[in-house]
Amino acid sequence: MTAMRDKSGRPVVVVTGMGVVTSLGTGKTDNWARLCAGESGIRTITRFPTEGLRTTMAGTVDFVPVEPFSSTDLSERLADIAAEEAVAQAEIGRAGDFPGPLFLAVAPVELEWPQRQELGHDIGPGIDIDYDQMLRVSGGGRYKQYHRRFLFGSVADHLAETFGTKGSPISLSTACASGTTAIQLGVEAIRRGEADAALCVATDGSVNPEALIRFSLLSALSTQNDPPHAAVRPFSKNRDGFVMAEGAGALVLESYEAATARGAKILGIVAGCGELADSFHRTRSSPDGKPIIGCVRNALADAGVTTEQIDYINAHGTGTPENDKMEYLGISSVFGERARQIPVSSNKSMVGHTLSAAGAVEAVFSLLTLERQRIPPTINYDVPDPAIPFDVVPNTARDARVTMVMSNSFGFGGQNASLILTREPV
Question: Is the pTM value of this prediction over 0.90?
Fold first, then answer.
């Protein structure tokens, strides 16, 4: 069999399995139905007290029980659910024997307030010890539990053991671009011939008091709490911030040759990946838009396609005043007048911002758009911003001919990544 190559002579990378869980529900079927129906998963927080907080809603995944609650434990459970669905759809390998590496996007891991309080009670006041000593002297035999749970690679180790991935699992965190970065690493491993398959997972269960307060102090969160489902307003003139959310997305990637050799169903193709970072500011985008412009151009160049070939943009679309403005600046600088003609939507208007998981969650939704030829809406789009003249798909899903999608992830710290997803090789 002759290997299929792209325009640059590299192996074509295809998707053979997808899994997703968000505040809308578990699995592709429920998520897609509710996404296209314009439903919202944003709700008032009940997990912890919110008295005195400016933001009291989030896209929590409370239907996946974790007791006692830990963001890392929830992240692990969500990753399990998404990866299991993706691997099952791909019908690859045997149970616990995935024939390729794992690339995992996951939030930075640290002790949360309840665990700190437990340890502080165990140790007593005025004791000056380092982090590892603190865990070791904690009572109740919690050292092993805490030490494993609050290591950055612990979730990846669990997934590697559960699914039997090969080689050392890779954990990564590139802010809101993390999920897209995980997919890019899988693509690059296959293109280099280091693997025939890769399991790319992104997960985040970080709705906890400390994270909520941190983002609130950055003035990044919406405070339009009532009703919660109307809080996320991407590209609208009355947008005021993003809403934290939880979720996970997973893709099984394979070379076209390996997938066809085993008779796998091909769900889509990752034709191009682009990234660019600038470190301009911890939260703000560079005012000249160069990092976003460069990222988008890199993705198009990597795929070997032009702006005329993009049929739909799955926008980063957080709903923050500056990020939405900078996304339009970046896209319009590359696409010119076509930026006003290409349908654009933001999944975050319904599921919220799943942070480290967002790039993978939105890649799954982009691939489903290619499969179903239906573009999910941007809900709460009632007051268009004249400074952002995108063709936003407003409030109701739109049937359309879609053969190529750009999916954008533009994160804090200037960490930007974009994917080009297609139905057929380019």
Answer: yes
